[in-house]
């Protein structure tokens, strides 16, 4: 029973991590956003490209092995390279990446910068150099040496105490 409790507790901890929840939200938003981008590409970008040719990028293709023909029923003979579909997918990707960056990433980074500027500045530890450390060790050794010698002072730096 404790093993099941441990597994369930671990699973619950995994689900409650911020990264998992953020990833789930990103997937849902991405799926919803894909349909918007696809509609923009098909409704706006493809007609603009269509001003120079056909409005459906899927019709852009080249014959690799002929004879290449499309019958009235839609049957295709030959081997086509459908480079128009690739261009359409690339445009969809670029638009999705641009919107995600400019509408989500950039504002979030600006928000984080503002929050970091408002946060109290933490004292960063000062790095001690080797020379500083050796100087501190020397000073401690001098203090120990002078503590054992009555009337000892810093003038005894180069002298060893007699035993």
Write the layout of secondary structure elements.
Layout: H1 2-16, H2 18-50, E1 62-70, E2 76-81, H3 83-118, H4 130-148
Antiparallel strand pairs: 1-2
3D structure, described in words:
The protein has about 160 residues and is mainly alpha-helical. Helix content is about 65%, strand content about 10%. The chain is built from four helices and two strands, in the order H-H-E-E-H-H. The chain has helices at about 1-15, 20-50, 85-120, 130-150; strands at about 60-70, 75-80. A two-stranded antiparallel sheet has the order 1-2. Helix 2 crosses helix 3. The longest helix has about 35 residues, at about 85-120. The protein is elongated, with a radius of gyration of 36 Å. The chain starts with a helix and ends in a 15-residue tail after the last helix. The model has no long low-confidence stretch (mean pLDDT about 80).
The amount of helix comes to: 55-70%
Low-confidence stretches: none
DSSP strand content: 5-15%
Number of β-strand runs:
2
- Roughly what is the average pLDDT, rounded to an integer? 78
Tertiary shape: elongated
Number of helices: 4
Elements, N to C (H/E): HHEEHH
Sheet with the most strands: spatial strand order: 1-2
Based on secondary structure, the structural category is mainly alpha
Whole-angstrom Rg = 36 Å
Largest sheet: 2 strands, antiparallel
Measured distance between first and last alpha carbons: 71 Å
């Amino acid at each position: 029973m404790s093993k099941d409790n441990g597994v369930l507790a671990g699973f619950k901890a995994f689900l409650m991590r911020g990264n998992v929840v953020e990833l789930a939200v990103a997937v849902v938003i991405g799926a919803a956003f894909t349909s918007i981008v696809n509609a923009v590409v098909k409704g706006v970008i493809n007609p603009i490209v269509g001003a120079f040719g056909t409005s459906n990028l899927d019709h852009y293709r080249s014959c690799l092995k002929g004879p290449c023909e499309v019958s009235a029923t839609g049957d295709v003979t030959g081997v086509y390279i459908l480079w128009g579909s690739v261009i359409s997918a690339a445009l969809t990707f670029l638009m999705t990446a641009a919107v995600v960056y400019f509408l989500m990433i950039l504002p979030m980074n600006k928000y984080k910068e503002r929050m970091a500027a408002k946060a109290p500045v933490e004292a960063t530890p000062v790095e001690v150099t080797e020379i500083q450390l050796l100087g501190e060790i020397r000073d401690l050794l001098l203090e120990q040496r002078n503590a054992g010698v009555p009337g000892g002072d810093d003038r005894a730096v180069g002298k060893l105490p007699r035993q």
